[in-house]
User: Which sequence fits this backbone?
């Protein structure tokens, strides 16, 4: 018989197996100093493109003041208990109303962690007779929610509407047999490649099929749409999104999130979503902090304009310099390169140590073998100098990559 600890010792997991060489540098790096485009890594200033601080709210003076004030007024214990039992407050309900209003839904429910909320909401919305149809490149929180589902699920090829329609046909046949319903789940913006989900096209399928649409808009909320209400607003289909999820972990520069929908659906979630009914309510300082952030998102549209000015300059600059950035139509800016894993680690090492640029790298198994993605997240607090310096530096490191200078059998020493 096996022993759990012995098994874990032998199999560290796909990323954990590299922990010895990578911990503290490629994985679990420590960025220090005030959150922004210029932070310290291992004691040296780096130009940082790795944080989802899209609107620059993390270090906005009004946000910092509101956070400090709320921390001092309420402390982090308050309210004690789950919302349903003893942890409700007027401020929680005010934030829920304001968020619902912001994304044009009847009501919303606060959630402590976006990831957990998506898993739990999927679990809560469907029963074993229902059928889930979802995009193949969905975030882990959707995949894990689908894993909890006791009924059938059909996956469609990423953003492939023909395949989505095919899966809806299968789902419809099955749901007719079981007496169940269909939930389609996709994302507003796919966080690796930055392409928006084909919400408009999926919504159009409602004419032919009977289903409800659940959209995870983690990267869209605050960054897309005329008022920042997200990808549904951007594509003109916000009203046709039946259940909308937004996180506080990106544009809002905080933690937690919300799910917005019809009032009766939100009430159902309030009374049935296990991650919220069996967990402590969001602490008061976070609720007050989210209210301040929402106020700034609504009243300072110049933050979003600046974000897009930087995003457009970065994306067009990279394209003009000959880089492949794929089908992104959001702020997420991936730069696609070809190379092995040792080459990618040597390249990142060179970029960090000699060009002082810090960005995330995505390699196999997240993307196919031989592909390297350098993933840049522009923010409203980056400058044109940051953009130009990055494009110049990228041109130099890609020259070295093509010349084979990063070829090495061993992973860069860190
Ligand atoms: C698409 C998507 N959904 C959900 C989440 C999880 O959100 P949170 O960080 O609030 O748990 C993320 C964050 O990584 C995300 O990118």
Assistant:
């Amino acid at each position: 018989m096996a022993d759990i600890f012995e098994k874990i010792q032998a199999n560290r997991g796909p990323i954990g197996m590299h922990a010895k060489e990578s911990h503290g540098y490629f994985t679990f790096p420590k960025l220090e100093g005030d959150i922004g485009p210029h932070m310290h890594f291992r004691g040296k200033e780096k130009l940082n493109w790795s944080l989802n601080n899209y609107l620059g709210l993390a270090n906005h003076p009004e946000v910092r003041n509101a956070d400090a004030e709320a921390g001092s007024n309420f402390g982090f214990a308050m309210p004690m208990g789950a919302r349903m039992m003893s942890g409700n407050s007027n401020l929680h309900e005010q934030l829920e109303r304001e968020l619902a209003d912001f994304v044009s839904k009847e009501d919303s429910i606060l959630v402590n962690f976006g990831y957990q909320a998506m898993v739990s909401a999927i679990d809560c919305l469907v029963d074993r007779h229902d059928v889930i149809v979802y995009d193949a490149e969905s975030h882990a929180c959707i995949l894990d929610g689908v894993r909890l589902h006791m009924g059938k699920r059909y996956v469609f090829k990423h953003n492939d509407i023909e395949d989505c329609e095919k899966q809806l046909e299968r789902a419809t046949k099955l749901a007719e047999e079981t007496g169940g319903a269909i939930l389609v789940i996709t994302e507003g913006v796919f966080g690796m490649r930055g392409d928006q989900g084909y919400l408009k096209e999926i919504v159009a399928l409602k004419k032919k099929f009977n289903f409800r649409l659940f959209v995870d808009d983690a990267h869209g909320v605050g960054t897309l749409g005329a008022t920042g209400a997200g990808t549904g607003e951007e594509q003109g289909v916000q009203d046709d999104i039946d259940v909308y999820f937004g996180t506080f972990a990106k544009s809002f520069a905080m933690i937690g999130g919300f799910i917005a929908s019809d009032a009766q659906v939100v009430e159902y979630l309030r009374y049935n979503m296990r991650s919220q009914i069996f967990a402590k309510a969001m602490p008061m300082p976070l609720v007050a902090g989210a209210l301040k952030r929402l106020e700034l998102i609504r009243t300072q549209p110049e933050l979003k304009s600046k974000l897009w000015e930087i995003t457009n300059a970065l994306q067009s600059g990279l394209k003009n310099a000959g880089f492949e950035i794929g089908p992104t139509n959001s702020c997420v800016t991936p730069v696609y390169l070809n190379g092995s894993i040792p080459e990618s680690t040597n390249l990142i090492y060179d970029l960090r140590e000699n060009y002082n640029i810090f960005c995330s790298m995505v390699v196999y198994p997240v993307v196919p073998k031989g592909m390297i993605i350098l993933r840049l997240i522009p923010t409203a607090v980056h400058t044109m100098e940051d953009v130009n310096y990055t494009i110049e530096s990228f041109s130099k490191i890609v020259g070295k990559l093509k010349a084979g200078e990063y070829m090495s059998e061993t992973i860069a020493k860190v």
